[in-house]
């Protein structure tokens, strides 16, 4: 009997080999597939890649959107957002996980452009770009205005024509720029920044910058919804007028600008007075001034006639004569009053002098009394203050007596009278 052949040994694969086979099978089977789901655990890496999870009620899948894809998207995915993604399946070898590589991404239920616009408005609103308090008034009339518009478009021609009709004294500087299509936003932003550089460095001062273009579809106007255009307007030192000719759709530029005009022509109207209206207004003002001057002149003539009938104008010196007579009467009364007051004062002085005379020390001397004082003028009241040899001066009513002290004794030093107890 022959022995049964031994079974062949099973093929043993390494983990890397098995993962490579699985990846090849999955990538061949799911080369391009559409998936709808909710964004979860969204992460933005420093490399620019996005990592998140797409999930529904019962399952989830790891998802990667590389930087090259992300730069083309107009909106930013967020947790909880419903999206539709086109891409391919692969396996990430280091973890042995299958994942979905995004090649196209769009929001579910709303267009990507509309969602991007909403997100940009929310962002700029939070940064204060739309705050009415920061918006500056327009100079009226302006001396120099910069027009940023297509060099071949109707908008710039219309603005130049309306400026010439309404206020031809404004100097216009046209800075041609693309206002739609690829690179339009970059060109508009560059134009605003260049004009501000000229203004800031005193090369060419501007009173306003007008961003103008005619009407168009939302896609045609998309350059005015870009963030770099909003940044340029927000940082402009010169007031900016957004004159995008579309009355229904409000662009981001309209919201950030200092003034929004529905059309380029409306921008010129907002900036300038109408020369013809101004001339008419000046004519009307001239007429009112002439009427007012005529009324004032008539009133002045009437007042002059009234003054002419007054006595002061008929006899101009009569008033002077009356005043002179009153002055003479007043002078006479003052002279009489002065004489009376002088007489009264003289009489009163005599009375006071008589009273003072009765109190004078000289009257006391006339009655036999005398005053004695030392040579230095001290009045002698007490003999104890004198010493023998002191010189005294005694005044009597008829003259002065000089004497020399030989003895000075107080009455307190006399012996008491006889019979005192």
TrEMBL record:
It is an enzyme of class 3 (hydrolase). Its main location: cytoplasm. Residues 129-357 form the Exonuclease VII large subunit C-terminal domain. It comes from the Bacteria. GO terms for cellular component: cytoplasm; exodeoxyribonuclease VII complex. Residues 13-105 form the OB-fold nucleic acid binding domain. GO terms for biological process: DNA catabolic process. It is found in: Cytoplasm. Keywords: Coiled coil, Cytoplasm, Exonuclease, Hydrolase, Nuclease. One of its GO terms (molecular function) is nucleic acid binding. Transmembrane segments: none annotated. InterPro entries: Exonuc_VII_L, Exonuc_VII_lsu_C, OB-fold_nuc-bd_dom. Residues 290-355 form a coiled coil. It catalyses: Exonucleolytic cleavage in either 5'- to 3'- or 3'- to 5'-direction to yield nucleoside 5'-phosphates. The keyword Flavoprotein does not apply. Its EC number is 3.1.11.6. HAMAP family: Exonuc_7_L. Bidirectionally degrades single-stranded DNA into large acid-insoluble oligonucleotides, which are then degraded further into small acid-soluble oligonucleotides. Heterooligomer composed of large and small subunits. PANTHER family: EXODEOXYRIBONUCLEASE 7 LARGE SUBUNIT. Belongs to the XseA family. This is Exodeoxyribonuclease 7 large subunit. It comes from Frigoriglobus tundricola.
């Amino acid at each position: 009997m022959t022995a049964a052949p031994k079974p062949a040994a099973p093929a043993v694969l390494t983990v890397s080999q098995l993962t490579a086979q699985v990846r090849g099978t999955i990538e061949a089977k799911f080369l391009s597939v559409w998936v709808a789901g909710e964004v979860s655990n969204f992460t933005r890496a420093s490399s620019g890649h996005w990592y998140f999870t797409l999930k529904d009620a019962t399952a989830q899948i790891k998802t990667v959107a590389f930087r090259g894809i992300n730069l083309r998207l107009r909106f930013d995915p967020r947790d909880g957002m419903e999206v539709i993604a086109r891409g391919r399946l692969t396996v990430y070898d280091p973890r042995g996980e299958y994942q979905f590589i995004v090649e196209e991404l769009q929001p579910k239920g709303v267009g990507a452009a509309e969602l991007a616009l909403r997100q940009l408005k929310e962002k700029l609103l939070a940064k204060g770009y739309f705050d009415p308090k920061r918006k500056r008034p327009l100079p009226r009339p302006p001396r120099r205005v910069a027009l940023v518009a297509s060099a071949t478009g109707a908008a710039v021609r219309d603005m130049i024509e309306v400026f010439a009709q309404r206020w031809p004294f404004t100097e216009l500087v046209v800075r041609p720029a693309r206002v739609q299509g690829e690179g339009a936003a970059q060109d508009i932003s560059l134009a605003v920044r260049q004009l501000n550089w000229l203004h800031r460095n005193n090369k060419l001062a501007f009173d306003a910058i007008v961003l103008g273009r005619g009407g168009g579809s939302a896609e045609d106007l998309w350059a005015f919804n870009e963030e770099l255009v909003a940044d340029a307007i927000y940082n402009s030192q010169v007031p900016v007028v957004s004159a995008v000719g579309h009355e229904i759709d409000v662009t981001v530029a309209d919201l950030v600008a200092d003034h929004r005009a529905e059309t380029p022509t409306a921008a010129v109207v907002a900036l300038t007075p109408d020369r013809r209206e101004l001339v008419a207004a000046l004519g009307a003002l001239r007429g009112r001034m002439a009427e007012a001057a005529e009324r004032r002149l008539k009133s002045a003539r009437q007042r002059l006639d009234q003054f002419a009938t007054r006595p002061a104008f008929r006899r101009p010196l009569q008033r002077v004569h009356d005043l002179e007579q009153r002055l003479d009467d007043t002078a006479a009364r003052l002279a009489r009053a002065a004489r009376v007051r002088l007489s009264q004062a003289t009489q009163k002085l005599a009375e006071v002098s008589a009273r003072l005379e009765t109190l004078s020390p000289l009257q006391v001397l006339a009655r036999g009394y005398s005053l004695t004082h030392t040579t230095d003028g001290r009045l002698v009241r007490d003999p104890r203050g004198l010493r023998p040899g002191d010189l005294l001066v005694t005044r009597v009513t008829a003259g002065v007596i000089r004497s020399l002290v030989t003895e000075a004794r107080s009455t307190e030093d006399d012996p008491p009278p006889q019979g005192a107890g």
